[in-house]
Amino acid sequence: MSSYNVNSDHGEIDDSMKTFTDINCLLNEQHGYSHPKLLGEGSYGVVIRYRRPQNEGDVAVKCVFLHNVREGEGQLWFGLKHENIVPLLQWTIFESLNVVCFEMEVYEQDLFSAVRKAEYLQSADALQQLKMWLYQALSGINFLHERQLYHLDIKSDNVFISRKAKRALIADFTFLRRTSSHIRRYHIGLPHVYHPPETSRTRRNEKQIDGLCFDLWSYGVMTMELLTNFHIARSFPSDHRSADARYACMRNVLQEEAFTEKVQTALPAVEIIHGDILMALDFMHSFLRRHPTARTTAEVGLEHSFLGKGDIVNGEVDALWKFPSKYL
Fold first, then answer.
1. If DSSP codes are grouped into helix, strand and coil, which group holds residue 278?
2. 74 and 114: one domain?
3. Which of 91, 195, 285, 293 has the fewest Cβ atoms within 10 Å of its own Cβ atom?
4. Is residue 195 part of a domain?
5. pLDDT block averages, 10 residues each, the chain of length 328
């Protein structure tokens, strides 16, 4: 299940069926959890769905070897209390297995899959629903940034959608870092094809990355993908493609005519007006800026006119997205 894909590589827990069986037994003994179902697997661990006793509903448990636990999950996640942050319910350490289990509610879908559901595609209110999800996701990011925390893996499959309230919640805190941390490229969870321009310069001289600015760029890219159904990772599956090639492709999508066509295709039941297009482009351009400190903060972005919660308009397009671009 994409919502709980902890990593794409097969890892240590995946290679040990004995560990998997032992975890099931211990969780059953301690908490009465039963009917395990594997939801995701990877190099950092597995995510298993369990049925809780006495009709308390299901729970998702992420099991990670202790030596693989990072600061974000091991120290920071439990203190994050916000309606747009997936809460950590509890954690259990099994020293005999050298494993820690993080428990959370089960979320049936993420934002990536939600915008592909027939219910969404056939709704005349799909754009308004997407705006609400984008607002909620940005609220979660702003909550982290206000506490000097950076997510470093913002993408649509790391934004879960609650079943009852259809509320968007930021998830997966594997790479969550403090502002005081020295953030290098190997601390980042987001695939390289989604990285902002400054990471290319960082690769050459190993300068520290500004996590706040990194998250803002990532959010802008996620917004573009959700509105247009254009996905960079599919267009550029290899991390070795040049940044210039990726930005050239994005530049084409961000031109008004091409963007309008893609939005209309992605939202077939919605009557798109010209003002929607202009505000959506303006909103994305406020985050997609070549210079990191020029990007709109999450706090300011929440007041943008596109989201319907304020009247802020950016009014500028970065030179990176203009024709001809001096950066090519």
1. helix
2. no
3. 293
4. yes
5. 44 57 92 92 84 90 91 91 96 92 94 96 98 99 97 96 91 88 77 88 64 96 97 72 85 96 98 98 98 97 96 94 66
